Amino acid sequence: MRFPKGVNEETMFSSSDYNILMYSHDTYGLGHIRRTMAIANHLRGPKTNILILTGSPIAGRFSFPEHVDFVRIPGMIKKKNNEYCSLSIRIDAKHALKIRTDIIKATAKTFQPDLFIVDKEPLGLKREVLPTLKWLKKSLPATTTVLGLRDILDEARIIRKDWQKKGVYRYLENLYDEIWVYGEQKIYNPIEQYQIPPQIDGKVVFTGYISRKKTDAANRAKIRKQFRIFDDDTFILVTTGGGGDGSEILENFLSLHDEYPEPLPFKSVIITGPFMPRQKREEFRIRADRCGIKLLPFHPRLEELINAADLVVTMGGYNTLCEILTQRTPALVVPRESPRLEQLIRAECLHARGLIEYIPWSEISPGLLREKIISMVSQSSKYKNAMENFSLSGLETMRQRVEVFKGNKKPDSIATTS
């Protein structure tokens, strides 16, 4: 087992240390691991160790700061509906889930967390976190357990039905101390939408949206120079998150260049995402080369590119939009509507506050893209001003909650590993 940097078995249980275990199931995409990394980076400290349980196949591509490390559990990928299969190793799904479940519980027993934060799935993938939650409640009751939810999970009726079927409301009452919602209640209220009962809603803390590292003017100039974008050029960044379902956006964006042969008034960089199928990415690369567009599969510091851009064309994932709001870069969002409506609902909510523009997935076309891009660039100050007045309080609120937990920490709260 890998321990956080600077930590070993002898120092693991120092009474002055505070151990945070974070679970991120990461069946696909970049969202969960990026959000988890942002939170960990903010909560870490000389006396705060953070260990991340993740199934992300690209966790190792990120730079982990001091006092933060990760345990990689076998990756899983969703095939259809509620069916999953092993991502890399050739074993059946039940075997893979058993390995994941055992690693999660064994890590908790060894690491002895003061705080356990579970991302998005209250019971984990296919209930894999449930045994650990029950063990903590029985054997390490001083551990604070928190469920972290992004602002919007899906259409409300879908979440209510799913939570009722899985008995989630009961587990929220009995196994979790707090529920952190990484959004604002006045923008979207899951207490109301998901019908969270009164005996649970007192546990809900609306943290606000999660900010990212704000890059400065010098870094913006450096990135633009790197991609040969001059001061008077308009820079359009196109990103599709993990890339597994972003082909439609890239198809329309590249067709925009094919259908309008006259020089377009902007320069572009495309980030396909590491999970875009290799053949499809290569097809897009060839077309992008013809148009003089730089295409990359992945960039570990996407926030730097967002800050350097004059406009971002993107899907509507939570993490990408938080990065956009942090950098205050105007964004044209094309939210996916399958397999869930989360991105569309988020786009509608943020558009209502004047923060972004969006094109419904079914309406995207090269012509409409061109029209929207040119219009938004010409009035970019409107969106920047709206973002300037939008608070991103998530990380600070979480830090404050952790300070409260630390103040309530009981001494000698070490469990046996039986």
The number of helices is: 16
Task: Sketch the major β-sheet.
Answer: 7 strands, parallel
| Shape verdict | globular
In spatial order, strands of the major sheet run: 3-2-1-6-7-8-9
Radius of gyration: 22 Å
Q: Whole-Å distance between the termini?
A: 18 Å
- Percent helix among the residues? 40-55%
The overall pLDDT, averaged over residues, is 90
Count the beta strands: 15
Proportion of strand residues: 15-25%
SSE class: alpha/beta
Low-confidence residue ranges: none
Q: Explain this structure to me?
A:
This protein has 418 residues and is of the alpha/beta class. It is built from 16 helices and 15 strands. The strands form three sheets. It has a seven-stranded parallel β-sheet with strand order 3-2-1-6-7-8-9, with helices on both faces. A six-stranded parallel β-sheet has the order 12-11-10-13-14-15, sandwiched between helices. A two-stranded antiparallel ribbon has the order 4-5. β14, α13 and β15 (357-358) form a beta-alpha-beta unit. α1 (31-43) crosses α16 (394-407), α2 (93-111) runs parallel beside α3 (130-139) and α8 crosses α11. The radius of gyration is 22 Å and the shape is globular. It starts with 17 loop residues before the first strand and ends in an 11-residue tail after the last helix. 42% of the residues are buried.
